[in-house]
């Protein structure tokens, strides 16, 4: 991969794109929608090859699900682009403005970051989401997916570039706003992460191993997205039917995604009632790895229902399983739950099931995470669910952006100062 040549094209593309109006960008994105629709069969065929190869290598079905596309998911991608088209263009937005005592006018305005790189695993939907958000916010983007999704990503990027080319011929689209790394060797990632002065920011999206590697290797700025060791805490006042339904949704709907829960904490006063019903609900579906107290409550159930309940090891409470496995622990109160979460989570998404307003507010105030829920599933931590149309990922850091990252996460600001001869 010739990183300099790629980055030079992307820089030229970002310079052109930064001057495009919202209308011009929206026309180009609409052309991309048409092209994705036109090339739907080719995209699905390429994805089927990736999925077949993944299964042949013994990839878990939870991870195969992350890789898979179908007509419904492509419809969802198209809908996300439509939402992004409908959103207000952030570029040029005046964040603040004032006049100095000497009469100079100072305006703080929103501008693109420039050239963005995203390094991600599996999930070909990220290819569309990342491009669309970058394009609408005036940035060019270098995509480096994983070899497991290479055929899918090539087909999607080809469709995107075809749509941009058709609109560029009319004076709108910018074809050089997107490039896909060839995914020929791991050295490509290092080339991207050390491209000082060529790439303005990198975003990792994937496993904890990938994210840590990017953070440790990068010599360019990184917006860190996080692995998801997410928890649900069932408080002593919680509605147990609600808690059961939320736990089921948060663990089983898509266990291979970062906003699925990996641990359930239960107040000791409701553990005797809640844990058996949880075990029965999860029977035949989810393996429960229980601390001593929860194991004592649940172990006998294995004799009467088809559930897998095993004693937990310490490492289980620090593991993102990305599978149909869930750690379980009994706690004495909300304060112990909060302390445990803050010691074991990845600052992603946490939820409390409670009817106590005081405990809900305490939980939201003290839990250190990007998204903190009361009486709802952690599965809502998603740019689409938050109304962003799509997301670049879930930022778990505290600087620049936190939580689901939409259009504005790919912008920064500059100060524009107008005077009439002032000197200091």
Please list the strands of the largest sheet in the order they lie side by side.
10-9-11-8-7-12-13
Tell me the series of helices and strands, N- to C-terminal. Answer: HHHHHEEEHEHEHEHEHEHEHEEHEHEEEE
* SSE class: alpha/beta
Shape: globular
Q: What do you see in this structure?
A:
This protein is of the alpha/beta class and 424 residues long. It has helices at residues 3-17, 22-38, 40-56, 61-67, 71-86, 125-136, 150-168, 187-193, 208-217, 240-252, 268-282, 292-298, 334-344, 357-366; strands at residues 94-99, 105-112, 115-120, 140-144, 178-180, 201-205, 230-234, 261-267, 287-290, 308-311, 325-331, 349-353, 371-374, 394-395, 403-404, 411-418. Helix 2 (22-38) packs antiparallel against helix 5, helix 3 runs antiparallel to helix 7 and helix 5 (71-86) runs parallel beside helix 6. The mean pLDDT is 94.
């Amino acid at each position: 991969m010739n990183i300099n040549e790629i980055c030079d094209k992307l820089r030229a593309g970002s310079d052109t794109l930064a001057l495009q109006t919202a209308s011009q960008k929206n026309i180009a994105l609409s052309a991309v929608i048409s092209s994705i629709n036109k090339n739907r069969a080719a995209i699905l065929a390429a994805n089927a090859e990736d999925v077949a190869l993944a299964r042949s290598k013994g990839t878990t079905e939870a991870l195969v699900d992350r890789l898979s596309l179908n007509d419904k998911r492509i419809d969802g991608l198209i809908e996300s682009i439509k939402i992004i088209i409908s959103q207000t263009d952030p570029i040029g937005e005046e964040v603040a403005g004032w006049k100095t005592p000497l009469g100079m006018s100072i305006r703080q305005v929103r501008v693109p970051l420039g050239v963005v790189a995203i390094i991600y695993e599996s999930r070909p939907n990220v290819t569309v989401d990342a491009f669309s958000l970058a394009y609408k916010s005036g940035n060019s983007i270098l995509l480096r997916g994983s070899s497991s999704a290479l055929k899918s990503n090539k087909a999607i990027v080809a469709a995107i570039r075809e749509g941009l080319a058709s609109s560029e011929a009319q004076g709108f689209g910018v074809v050089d706003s997107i490039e896909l790394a060839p995914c020929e060797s791991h050295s490509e990632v290092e080339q991207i992460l050390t491209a000082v002065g060529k790439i303005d920011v990198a975003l990792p999206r994937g496993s904890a191993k990938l994210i840590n590697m990017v953070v440790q290797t990068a010599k360019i700025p990184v917006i860190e997205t996080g692995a998801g060791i997410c928890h649900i805490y069932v408080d002593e006042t919680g509605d147990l039917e609600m808690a059961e339904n939320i736990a089921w949704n948060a663990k089983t709907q898509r266990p291979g995604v970062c906003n699925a829960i990996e641990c359930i904490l239960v107040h000791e006063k409701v553990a005797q009632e809640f844990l058996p019903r949880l075990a029965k609900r999860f029977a035949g579906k989810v393996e429960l790895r229980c601390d001593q107290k929860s194991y004592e409550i649940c172990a006998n159930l294995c004799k009467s229902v088809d559930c897998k309940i095993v004693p937990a090891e310490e490492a289980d409470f620090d593991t993102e399983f990305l599978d149909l496995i869930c750690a379980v622990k009994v706690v004495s109160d909300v304060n112990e739950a909060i302390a445990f979460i803050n010691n074991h989570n990845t600052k992603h998404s946490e939820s409390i099931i409670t009817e106590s307003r005081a405990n809900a507010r305490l939980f939201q105030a003290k839990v250190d995470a990007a998204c903190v829920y009361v009486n709802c599933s952690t599965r809502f931590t998603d740019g689409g669910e938050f109304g962003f149309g799509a997301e670049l990922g879930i930022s778990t850091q505290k600087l620049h952006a936190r939580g689901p990252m939409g259009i504005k996460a790919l912008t920064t600001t500059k100060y524009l100062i107008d005077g009439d001869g002032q000197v200091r």
